[in-house]
């Protein structure tokens, strides 16, 4: 699978969701977030946070910009037409402002331990693909069975197409896809082909 291929290139090893939650909690307890949630309350938002950073990294989006913008949106939503914020509103805004440093500290901890989640591993490989591609010594590469790509996958596969003459075969049904169609699937595949 593409996962196995990417994992074989990375120096990071994938860990399960539970271990990620515990490591994130350790980072969270040392972070600047005040007051600290009890573990049970932490779990109410931590899984979503992990899901979000996984997608952010998988798509090679700047997490720093996402979290700065999110904090600003939450500040505007909360303070709109309010000149004085309550203590709860201030804590709410402070929480969103703490997500960026929490993400950066968590990422640092994972790199120190050489472990990660899918998005971080894909991002790390995509950002270092020139170096990692030399690990394998195959004469030909085939990427088969895709019907969608993340931005990190596009970056990795594009490198193999450009430098190793890799071929790509999509898993598409002609009922849903034709190259000249205006369907969502056709637009998505045509976009991927242009990116590659």
Structure description:
There is one protein chain. This protein is mostly helical and 196 residues long. The protein is built from nine helices and four strands. Helix 8 (151-164) links the parallel strand 3 (142-146) and strand 4. The relative contact order is 0.14. The mean pLDDT is 87.
Ordered list of secondary-structure elements with their pairings:
Blueprint: H1 2-9, E1 13-14, H2 17-30, H3 39-58, H4 63-79, H5 87-113, E2 115-116, H6 118-127, H7 129-132, E3 142-146, H8 151-164, E4 167-170, H9 184-195
Parallel strand pairs: 1-2, 3-4
Which shape, going by the Cα principal axes? globular
Main sheet attributes: strand count, strand direction, barrel closure: 2 strands, parallel
Q: Give the strand line-up of the largest sheet.
A: 1-2
How many individual β-strands?
Answer: 4
Question: Could you estimate the helical fraction of the residues in percent?
Answer: 55-70%
Low-confidence stretches: none
Termini separation comes to 19 Å
Rg from alpha-carbon coordinates: 20 Å
Please state roughly what percent of the residues sit in beta strands, choosing from under 5%, 5-15%, 15-25%, 25-35%, 35-45% or over 45%. 5-15%
User: By helix and strand content, what is the structural category?
Assistant: mainly alpha
Instruction: Give the topology string: H per helix, E per strand.
Output: HEHHHHEHHEHEH
Output the number of helix runs. Answer: 9
Overall pLDDT level: 87
